[in-house]
Amino acid sequence: xxxxxxxxxxxxxxxxxxxxxxxxxxxxxxxxxxxxxxxxxxxxxxxxxxxxxxxxxxxxxxxxxxxxxxxxxxxxxxxxxxxxxxxxxxxxxxxxxxxxxxxxxxxxxxxxxxxxxxxxxxxxxxxxxxxxxxxxxxxxxxxxxxxxxxxxxxxxxxxxxxxxxxxxxxxxxxxxxxxxxxxxxxxxxxxxxxxxxxxxxxxxxxxxxxxxxxxxxxxxxxxxxxxxxxxxxxxxxxxxxxxxxxxxxxxxxxxxxxxxxxxxxxxxxxxxxxxxxxxxxxxxxxxxxxxxx
Length: 293
What we know:
- The protein is built from 13 helices and no strands.
- By secondary structure, the protein is mainly alpha-helical.
- The protein has one domain (27-292).
């Protein structure tokens, strides 16, 4: 994967930062909705299958109403791979890692992806490694570590799977950065969701997943599909079309900060001094990154 560096205009870059920040806020709400779904009796496979099935149906309707052109040829195959292999593979590694390591360690390993994206983009896409970009990535990683904190124990399989999730997601973002400029956010996101939905539906059919019970559980599934999938992915892809892969990945580190804030507001969890400091570091890093653009 080679190519020249992509330097967006300042206005486009700032718009991209806003889009990715909105995406991060939507993804950040996902753990809250998942907790509600799990509390209603839903299993992991059921949540994933319902999430992408509902999202794919909604996106397909939007594509039909807007008469959008569907991706074709090699780009279509690439997008199917992003959904059916990339998204599914990342999700599998993440959930499997939780069986061998603490949630804190797995989450921290996953959020290595901004650093991995920055490094891989420099090697494969020849995107320049400016001091500001490197500093923003390192600061965001440090802030994320403070926010996640907690127990970081785990075995070697857990570490390998956690790093695997980060690596797969990094490649997903790098490939996506090229696809967004070729196909656009809406068509690309739709194909990715349909592909992921197909794989998770097969996984659900192979077992006996537990569906959510009660209105709260189904409302959480609807929120997962609409807010944390459709809105989150479309805004992320729209931002990815306007930013370098490294900058988009760095802005995405807002996700754990949003999760902590929402958990405090709706689940009564405490925001510690370390988490507050981590949030300040991340926001400062993103402000510096935005000003540099």
